[in-house]
């Protein structure tokens, strides 16, 4: 396994969460939905996990 096929790197800390301001514990999170995807320039589940590919959770 190598890093060439990693689609999305997720961690449980606040730095990988989409926020309006600079990432911090108090920044407002952006819940990305299809209806506001273009306005917020955010990603939805389908962007991270295309249906025709496998995702490894490590």
List the helices and strands and how they pair.
Elements: H1 37-40, H2 45-48
How much of the residues is beta strand, in percent?
under 5%
Which stretches are poorly predicted, pLDDT < 50 over at least 5 residues?
Answer: 11-15
- Helicity level: 10-25%
| N/C terminus separation | 11 Å
Beta strands, count: 0
Q: Which series of helices and strands comes N to C?
A: HH
Shape: flat
Integer average pLDDT:
65
Largest sheet: none
The Cα radius of gyration reads 13 Å
Structural domains: how many: 1
Query: Helices and strands: which structural class?
Result: little secondary structure
Total helices: the number is: 2
Structure commentary:
This protein has one domain. Helices cover 14% and strands 0% of the residues. It is flat, with a radius of gyration of 13 Å. Mean pLDDT is 65; it is low at 11-15. It has helices at residues 37-40, 45-48. The longest helix has 4 residues, at 37-40. It contains 2 helices and no strands. The chain has 58 residues and is mostly loops.
Which features characterize this protein?
about 60 residues, little secondary structure, about 15% helix
How is this structure best summarized?
The protein is mostly loops and 58 residues long.
């Amino acid at each position: 396994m190598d890093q060439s096929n990693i689609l999305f790197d997720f961690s449980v800390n606040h730095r990988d969460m989409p926020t309006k301001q600079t990432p911090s514990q108090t920044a407002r999170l952006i819940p990305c939905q299809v209806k506001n995807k273009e306005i917020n320039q955010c990603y939805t589940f389908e962007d991270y996990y295309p249906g025709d590919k496998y995702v490894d959770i490590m």
